[in-house]
Amino acid sequence: MFRFIGRRLIACAVLVVVIAGITFLLAFSGTSNVARNLLGESATPDQLAAKNAELGLDKPLLAQLGTWAQNALHGDLGISWFTNEPVSQAIANRLPVTLSMVVLAVALTALISVGLGVAAAVRGGWLDRVIQVLSVAGFALPNFWVALVLVVFFSVTLGVLPATGYVRLSESPGSWAAALVLPVASLVIGSTASAAQQVRGAVIDVLRQDFVRTLRARGISPRSVLFRHALRNAAIPALTVLSLQFIALLGGAVVIEKVFAIPGLGTLTINAALQGDVPVLMGVVVTLVVLVVIVNLVIDVVSGWVNPKVRVQ
Amino acid sequence: MTASNTVRKVFRNPLAVAALVILVVIVLASVFAPLVAPHSPTALRLDKINAGPGSGYLLGGDGAGRDIFSRLLYAGRNTLTGAVIALSVALLLGVVSGLLSGYYGGLLDGVLGWGANLLMALPTMIVLLALFQALGSSIYLAMVAFGVMLSPGFHRLVRSQVMAVKHELYVDAARVSGLSDPRIIGRHVLLVVRAPIVIQAAVVAGIAIVVQSGLEFLGLGDPATPTWGGMLQDAFTNIYTSPVAIWWPGLTIALTVAALVLLGNAIRDVIQRTERPRKPPKPPALVPATPDTSDLPLLRITNLSVGYPIGNDYREVVHGVDLDVRQGEVMGLVGESGSGKTQTAFSVLGLLPPGGTLLGSSSIVFDGRELSRLPDSERRVLRGRRIGYVPQEPMSNLDPCFRVGEQLVEPLRAVSGLSKQAAVVEALHLLERVGIPDPRRTFAAYPHEISGGMAQRVLIAGAVSGKPDLLIADEPTTALDVTVQADVLELLRGLQTEFGMAMLLVTHNFGVVADICDRVAVMQDGRIVEVDDVRPLFARPQHPYTQTLLGSTLEDSTPRTRLEVNHA
């Protein structure tokens, strides 16, 4: 098990390094106008050169990457060009907001999609058809549009839930929860629809396996066959689905934050993208890739624990 | 299946036709927007700012007083162009790299596969935002980047398909006949992967539309050109004054993407021949059974017919089988694959595959009780306790997630109500009895850690753990190495004598029958053609089919013995 985790860890580290490197080279290759954007049209060539030197943009790209990587290893992701806030600090302030939204959404997705998927696999019938339809709908309805519809219905028409304004959990748990209902709902609707469909497929596949028949032939109760054996076997494909949903929901959260004016990583990223605040963007990409890699690693380890056969592959 | 055939079948699905019509209408309306649109997409009318639908503007006016309907049509051009760009890049990269990976394999495959994994770990939306300025602040360039990120889907799909066909005989033949690699790939391989690519393309186009709209909704994009995402942004800004405006671009996106997905699904259904799961027809009611109840043996099967639903009907695969198994005897059930012998065995267990149904006046009397009319909850009580089951393929019949020991202990406790400790002791004892050298180690092992022969012994231990009166063994040695087969048969024979069990042994191998059976029934095409004691049947087979089967066994038995010697 430790060798299994060790191998995965190395692979993950390489992945992070490569993605960070490529993103850096791409993002920092188009920085010729940065000084002009920061200083305005009236800046003299000398002032521009001084600004470039200050930002370190006068050095060769690879040297810039070297400096950035060295600092990043010490937790220093640079300073925003536009707000002068340290990038690490900006991210540390906003990551919990986004994560609370995404983690809640993933947990709900897991709960609902496993319930629906198992029921559809075992019962079939109308529930099965409903899930088939929902999976197409969940794919076709962009979650930010679902968010808009929810806002129109619950905030504009009914006025029962706030459309904007995030409240910290520490300030008022009630308002925090109320502020998260619509954003999380708009994320969960789409992801549940597709995840339930895949859980359904996984459970049906397992129930068709030979060992299920053999277990039944041994006189084990149908409940144990389904919940102890079939679910545990279906857990691996289901976990993979959830890890993919997590990545998708991180991206989805960016847009959702804009709709509900939530001061998370998404809002930070959008503003940085519109301004061309490259150090912030770089920091966000690296943070999220690390996050994704950690989630995948955890999923791998859990899969190996659930089904020991995975470890030897 | 030919392409025209596939197309024809897809068109038989009304949902697919509707999807295609919607797509065609949307594409045509976008392409011919200047001819169709009633207004210019940029014409402003101050009196129409956030106007409701109808008032001169079909779907109302947007936040700047422009006609929403006309803008939707013009926006379609830009959004669809973006989707086509992303799709083309993903197709080009993914298909070419997938072909190379699958066809040449080796280091190239490793490198390309690693690249695909890398791209799949990216949170795409964030990366697109991060690279937006560096890529030149153009939505089309962003869609090129998105195409790159979407390419792993095609890469994996094409690679696995190419791997599958690479070793097909016709590809080998093409290679031997001197065709160049590119021509083989183009002519033989691309033909096979065409359909899955079309399906994946429909999905990818849908994703591209959604993501592009998302970027534009965030304000990344040219504000001067109308796009569906940009229109949503405008509607969002005016959500309190004109909430109805969010519907039009949203529904257009949803309709387009849903049409793409439904079309893809319809093609997949035709190619994989997975008809929409329809409700199986109600099985015809069983006719009252009239088995001969005089002088009942342990198991009496009378007029057993098994059918499976096809369309609105049931097709019979076992036609009126009669079979007796007496207390303590080993009954062989012999026949070729598809003769219905396994169906007969599963009927006794009450574990027919989904859809399998007893028909007519089928009757299964076990120990004086009619089983065929019992609900599953009552039949379950018999399984494991009175009727045991040894499957054919040992490795697939153990749950990979549980240790061997747990898989013995759980049924033992369910069947005989033993305490956990007592069940563990009993399980270890059983493992020892079936000839496993180190019972404790096997007890603690996972199924993938033991050999096929060991796994079959474990399954036999499980089957006899409830001390059943009848053991049903379905080809118990077929999947095993020749060297292990004899040992397992000997074990079964030993257990059968020790416990005084009756055994119904399903096999296609007359060697197995000769080794272990007392009586034998020969099945052909769902019917029993001959039943007799083993010796007379081998000496004087009556039915021509039995004669043929015995003849073919004898013919190939000689060289096989010689081969075994050579291997040893």
Automatic annotation (TrEMBL), chain A:
Keywords per UniProt: Cell membrane, Membrane, Transmembrane, Transmembrane helix, Transport
Subcellular location: Cell membrane
Gene Ontology terms: biological process: transmembrane transport
InterPro entries: BPD_transp_1_N, MetI-like, MetI-like_sf
Membrane-topology descriptor: Multi-pass membrane protein
Top-level taxon: Bacteria
Entry's transmembrane regions: 9-28, 101-122, 134-156, 176-196, 234-260, 280-306
Domain ABC transmembrane type-1: 95-303
GO CC terms of this entry: plasma membrane
Family listed: Belongs to the binding-protein-dependent transport system permease family.
Protein name: ABC transporter permease
Higher taxonomy: Bacteria, Bacillati, Actinomycetota, Actinomycetes, Propionibacteriales
TrEMBL record, chain B:
Matching PROSITE patterns: ABC_TM1, ABC_TRANSPORTER_1, ABC_TRANSPORTER_2
Top-level taxon: Bacteria
Gene Ontology CC annotation, any one: plasma membrane
Domain ABC transmembrane type-1: residue ranges: 76-268
Entries under SMART domains matching the protein: AAA
Family the UniProt entry places it in: Belongs to the ABC transporter superfamily. Belongs to the binding-protein-dependent transport system permease family.
Protein name stated in the entry: Dipeptide/oligopeptide/nickel ABC transporter permease/ATP-binding protein
